[in-house]
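User:
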Amino acid sequence: MSRRAVVIGAGLSGMLAAAVLSAAGADEVVVVDRDELPDGPEHRRGLPQGRHAHLLMAGGLTAMEELLEGAELRKRLLAAGAHEIPLNSGMVALTPEGWLRRWRRAGPSMLTCTRALLDWVVRQAVLERAPVQIRKAAVVGLTGSAGRVRGVRLAEPGGDTDLDADLVVDASGRGTRVVSWLDGIGVTGVREQAVDSGLVNASRLYRVPEGAEDFPLTIVQPNPYLARAGRSAMIMPVEGGRWLVSCGGTRGGEPPADPEGFLRYTLALPDPIVGRLISGAEPLGDVHLSRSTSNVRRYLEKLPAWPERFVVLGDALATFNPAYGHGMSVAAFGARVLSRELTRGGMTAPGLARRVVRGAARAAEPAWSMAVSQDLLYPEVRGGGRPSPADRLVSAYSRRMMRAATGSFTAASVIWDLMSLRTPPTRMFRPTAALAALAGPPLPPLTEPPLTEQEQALVRRLDRT
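Assistant: Predicted structure:
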């Protein structure tokens, strides 16, 4: 008897889930998405953050390469124009505690490219390796009962149709309707939490100026400790000889959509380096805004009972403020949980769906805690309540660690590991890390960006302000 799996959503999480299901022995894997998927690395409507900066951290890339074994995903991305950025030396970052130094010692890397390129490369890798069918349709509900999901209901031109499945995976992202879908089969009482700093992202593409091909990724981070809106900007190299410049501002400090205002915003940051660089660069399009940035957690794993044969992964389970760059990695972690559980018992094993949802929730928890603990510090944040004494204690310790990282390789290594999602947050409390935080930075703070003489000359040449 053939077994069919249905995946809702053809984004990163959905395609990784489809690959896992195919490898686990599903005879038919159908991925349902309301968008007409592009034939190349192009933006599509179903990715509200698709035009803004995305960072693929080392932990997430490792998980993806495990799930797509043999696809050589890293090599594919680099061949398509992605950039590999060593955190220790390839990044210039102004943190709330000062400039991070650039070290010559080894450290983790991250990949940078447009989200459109990443999704396209992953989708091609999956479709080459697995007999996955992609179907354009909108899912309007689940079929089955509170005890077991039996498929999905699709809205199609000729009317609603039911698509039966032995396993359904919701990977539909930020726009998921999973709570109402569950309500439709009699599963109620889902607790949701939203923490919204009011962040608005504004992004624009530029042609990389001549001589700036190897200029480091440059970021001015927001400061949550000033009791005012957080403002930030980043220049990130992407494919096609382009810079993707993304600004972010929390409620009361939102970046504008007009080109002149966009430039003024970058120049008014605590350091104007981003504005100085782009003032002499050629823009390649309009400024694009997005307000779909809140942290949203659906505590599906807390329900007293969970329907068999229904799994929820990625942003449909937990959505993060994209400023922290963890969403794609967490999606890969969730797909890895699905792979592990399928290997143990197969897609029709009793309790599999609940185990996957619980495991994916645990995998998302560190990123959720990091994002929410920072967003709660901004004024006018909505949801989440006030930071508890424990939250404030952890925040104070984290701030001390960041201050030490401005002049300590040991402390900087801790920050890189946490950013990369290679280690759990407990990494910050290991003895060597704690000693580094308590000792503080052994080197004096930098008063200017840590640029080479050639990089400084480039900034001066591009500066039109």
